[in-house]
Amino acid sequence: MDAPFSGKRVTLIGLGTRGGGLGVARYLAEQGAIVTVTDQRNEEALAGSLTALAGLPIRYVLGRHDERDFTPEGADVVVRNPGVPRRAPLLQLARAHGIPIEMEMSLFFRACPAPIVGVTGTKGKTTVATLAGALIAAEYPGAVTAGNMGISALEQLPLLQPEIPVVIELSSWQLEALIEHGLAPRIAVLTLIAEDHLNTYDGFTDYAETKRGITRHQRRGDWLIVNRDDPEAWQATGRSPATTVPFGTSDRGGDGAWLAGDALLWRWQGTELRWPLPTTPALAGPHGARNALAALAAARLAGVSPEAIACGLEGFAGVRDRMERVGEIDGVTYINDTTATAPVAAVVALEALAGRFGRVHLLCGGADKRLDPAPLAVAVGEHGATAYLFEGTATPGLAAALHEAGVAPEGPFGSMADALAAARRNARRGDVVLLSPGCASFGLFRDEFDRGDRFRQEVAALAVTAKDHAHAR
């Protein structure tokens, strides 16, 4: 698009407190748009975001929304933050008046000069996107990774080069914009589809179809890298002219990326390449292996050499807030997996660590997303883990499911400090304390990242106390 917003009146609904709307607001202002930012939160709640945008010609409507900003009287275009539901009444009002609804990703995909590797899935998308970005950067220094991980894609546009692929992590909400506007990545990666966000979708089918929508508008010559082990993800195959590239934990004999013993195998058009399976906790277990396979498939299709892939795999240390090793105290390891906001995600973390440690002490529970807690409860029982529950709207249901599975949980606890203190009292040398809640964070915490920050802070405080006790002895 050639300066499509110059002189246009653009309403951005939802600024966000963690930079969600900053990149969009800044991009629109720099494009010469007449920008209105509107958010139900007040100036105090948005202070950090407002400071970051200081000096830009932006009009703010805070603590409320005005209908005028969603009608032809006040707007030519509306841009929706991913946190705003697709059927929000004000968006419906804009649509009724024929005003186009955009999102950051629809703007980015049109403006991006580089081939796009798009990564989505219920679990694993951030790790796969980050690892794929690292592998591509090992071949092409300066390669960019952005998107749902908190890095504005629009703000990366000046850094992009037409010959170097860019990796973009895509949430289900961001995919909604691509589906609506007929857009798709050159290389699409679909990791896994399981129950999540059912509080904002019309059931699991609606959510799953949105995830599979990453391939809906791909074209001939594009690629769809998809999890062969997951029937829900595999349903995406054949829905576009894109070439299907499977990956999975057992070698099925055809082309694709497969786990072969302790090696990652890439078989393509008569050629086979192998790399050692990384030992980092970030890629532990079958799910971790699938993440590595998906990332190396994306890298190979993006033109990355076997040598660069080997270098990138060897240097990968994981992703903050996702199976992040925070520290070790008195022989007990502490791992932060706060972004596991669905039961299936916590199950994956539990399975990856069970057997590698003496016992798993699982910090879980929180806010409800209308998801079935039974799979997590069953996994806790099967792996002999101890569960420590946070207070929250989903916690009574999880507690009931745990009792049904023969597990007596501890708590609920009203703070991270209390939950960690209980886990520390029970943990023994060789155990692991795992924050993998399986629920949303709202209530006790601002969001899942605040929850992870609190975990890191409390573990650091425990480490200081343990050090002081050791010196006192």
CA radius of gyration is 23 Å
Strand order of the largest sheet: 7-8-6-9-10-11-12-13-14
The number of helical runs is: 15
Give the class from helix and strand content and strand pairing.
Answer: alpha/beta
CATH superfamily of the largest domain: Mur-like, catalytic domain
Please explain how this structure is put together.
With 473 residues, the chain is of the alpha/beta class. The protein is built from 15 helices and 20 strands. It has helices spanning 22-30, 47-52, 89-96, 104-111, 125-139, 172-181, 204-212, 231-234, 285-301, 306-315, 343-353, 374-382, 395-404, 416-426, 448-472, and strands spanning 9-13, 34-39, 58-62, 77-80, 101-102, 116-120, 145-147, 166-169, 187-190, 223-227, 243-248, 256-260, 263-268, 271-276, 324-329, 332-336, 360-364, 386-390, 410-413, 432-435. Helix 12 (374-382) links the parallel strand 17 (360-364) and strand 18. Helix 4 (104-111) crosses helix 6 (172-181) and helix 12 packs across helix 13. The longest helix has 25 residues, at 448-472. The protein is globular, with a radius of gyration of 23 Å.
